[in-house]
Specification:
globular, alpha/beta, six-stranded mixed beta sheet, nine-stranded mixed beta sheet
Length: 529
Amino acid sequence: MPRPGFVLDVDKSTPPVLFWRGEGFSLEKLPADRSRIIYPAEPLPGLDDPDGHIRDALLNPHDMEPLPALLRPDMKLTICFDDASLSLPKMRRPDIRQRIIEAVLDHAAEAGVDDIHIIAALGLHRRMHDYELRHVLGDRIFDAFHPRGLLYQHDAEDPDNLAVLGETEHREVLEINKRVADSDLVVYANVNQVAMDGGWKSITTGFASYRCLANHHTPTHLQETKSLMGHRDHSALHKSIWRLGKVLRDNGPKIFQVETSINTNAFPDTFGFLSKREWEWTAKDRALYLATEKSLKRMPNRAKRKIFHSIEAPYEMTSVQAGYTPSVHEITLEHVYEQHLVPVEGQTDILTMGIPFICPYNPEGIMNPILVMCMGLGYMFNMYRNKPLVREGGVIIMTHPTYREFNPVHHPSYIDFFDEVLADTTDPVVMAEKYEKKYAEDEWYKHLYRTGNAYHGVHPFYAWYWGAHGQQWAGKVIIVGGDAPTVRRLGFTPASTMDDAYEIATDVVGRSPSISHLHVPGVLVADVQ
């Protein structure tokens, strides 16, 4: 069995630890006798016959009839799948979603089902490029469905193709894709990379309108989401999603959920040193690291991004289950936690973390400054269960170049958000009241979202809200190596080196603070007691 995650107490003999810095790395020496490193578990073994396990899941679902019993010739069948925000990095072909959908299509063909649509669950994300669709779904599905207009992507701003299914007791409106709402059966092909994925969230966010998403993607909901990766009772966001899921269950189509979990085998052998514990690096690993770091420093950012975004992760599927959404999701979470949970005793004064080149909102693109905030305070800060790794009022130190660069095709409204909104306020509540509606209803942003490959106009607000709890929790946030004016625009403090950052942090945490480093790559959830 692979080794579990663990906490290493740093002493004078501990070697420097790897920090991501966007499209690069550094090795940093942590202060001895008051620092610790939280290491993820090694990747769990994948299932030996993924296609066989998928077929078995479809024939032996949880709390539902087998898939073949749900199929008939005269029905409307809609197959849905997670978009390019999963997995990160992109999965080596064949993607799990391709495997699931091909198995579903085989059963549909045997049952004589002709009315089949395949739809990407975009929510307010950008439209996937055709090459991304082909990568996720494979040539057989793409060539059979895309030319006929039967493979397409959800449009949250198409009024003719949205349907209201009802409201929750909190007056939250469930408005989703009309084809999904009108189907006799919806099969959802999901990849659970982290614990917040899947469940009712798949459809109630992936196929929702802005009006529906605005129920729970708010500063208040995210500030009151005390643990994105823990139990949903601690998440105002997930409570709302589960209320909407009840409306979907009671008033919507029959849903056959297929969920999978994957291991953390994120990088091919050429980047093998990234996933190893530093004191176990061989001479080959050290040489590979030095050569990689040296080469990256000489490259322009565009070339570095091209290399990193071309990585195809050798992820393996560790579980697959199908059937009734809540039943399936509970089992999926067990498998996700088996891979990710690392027991940690107590909180820390300072939390350090290296921000990598990618997050769910920049596949094939630039990690712009708003996404650095989102990844650091929204995702990585929230990789805990029970309580945050850093104490309330403590300091978060991130490493990232934080350049003022944006992808104008993918993130047009992000540019204006940085120039207009952040120039005025970094307070999520204030920006929501003053600016959100303007960006959400802007016709040009809608046009770019609907016809191009742009995120919805409101998306930079949602990315910022994602970090609202971390922003509220931390006493100070420091970014090492970032462009100083850009870092200050985010409301954070720039520092040139880690030593400078520790010195700046003393104003908040004193002269001898405890330090915890969240080691990535390798996804983990710190189970803080």
